[in-house]
Design goal:
globular; 2 strands
């Protein structure tokens, strides 16, 4: 006779993963928001009292939406973690020799490529269908300009389009537990830094090979300025292939130059 599902363990897994996602968001977004406040006080700590009050309201709204999204992202992750730990139903493995070592970096790239593809096309759909934008994506674009706290500022409908993807992949594509951690770290890093309002990478990177292939704040900021372009999350591949890549933000590049400009000799 099959034993009953250990409901207590399931609820612990669900609640625990929701908490992990929320704490990860608060820690990483908080760290980058603190650093961005030092670099771009004109955005994060404006001198104008009205602008400062508006920004304070915006940040509170971003955090509230992000914490609600953390729950929706945490639930499918918690379910996958529970089924892996109790029934071994996922393709997550812990023995690095279970597959060839070259599969570890390949699996990371495969997960990121699939996630980026899904993100591009669902993101583009939300912008090209007005009813979908209004119902699901308008919340994210209420932030003008976005801050590091906006990384997960999604309406629940938008969260539901993506929260299940990485957990679902663990049931079909083998991945080492450490490689999965790398995927989640990269996902968090790009989600936060793309919305910071200043460019974290050196300008020579942005204008070189890295910037031609990978997305950064300078690229994603254009999306928040123009809307109908620059839809990707990690890579510029789909934007370039589909003609939706509108380049980098001169504003962010100029702000970076101003922030790090060497003092002139007296």
């Amino acid at each position: 006779m099959q034993t009953a599902v250990p409901t207590t363990a399931l609820w612990v897994s669900l609640a625990g993963m929701c908490l992990i996602v929320a704490v990860r968001y608060l820690a990483i977004s908080g760290l980058f928001a603190w650093s961005a406040k030092k670099i771009r006080p004109d955005i994060y700590a404006p001198a104008d009292p009205k602008k400062a009050a508006r920004m304070a309201r915006q940040v509170k709204r971003e955090i509230a939406w992000s914490l609600s999204a953390a729950v929706l992202y945490g639930l499918p992750a918690g379910l996958a973690a529970h089924l892996w730990a109790t029934r071994g139903l996922t393709e997550i493995y812990v023995d690095p020799n279970a597959y060839p070592l070259w599969w570890i970096p390949v699996s990371v790239l495969l997960y990121l490529a699939i996630h980026d593809t899904w993100f591009y096309w669902t993101h583009r759909a939300m912008h090209h269908w007005p009813w979908l934008f209004k119902k699901a994506h308008a919340v994210h674009h209420e932030s003008r300009p976005p801050t590091a706290w906006a990384a997960m500022a999604f309406h629940p409908w938008e969260s539901l389009t993506a929260a299940w993807l990485i957990p679902a992949l663990t049931f079909v594509i083998p991945i080492h537990i450490a490689a999965l951690g790398v995927v989640l770290t990269i996902m968090t890093f790009f989600g936060v830094t793309n919305h910071m309002g200043w460019e974290i990478f050196p300008r020579r990177w942005i204008e070189g090979w890295f910037g031609r292939h990978f997305i950064s704040a300078s690229h994603h900021h254009v999306h928040h300025e123009r809307y109908m372009s620059n839809y990707g999350l990690y890579f510029r591949f789909w934007d370039k292939l589909c003609g939706t890549d509108k380049g980098l933000s001169p504003e962010l590049l100029a702000a970076k130059d101003a922030a790090f400009k060497a003092p002139q000799p007296q």
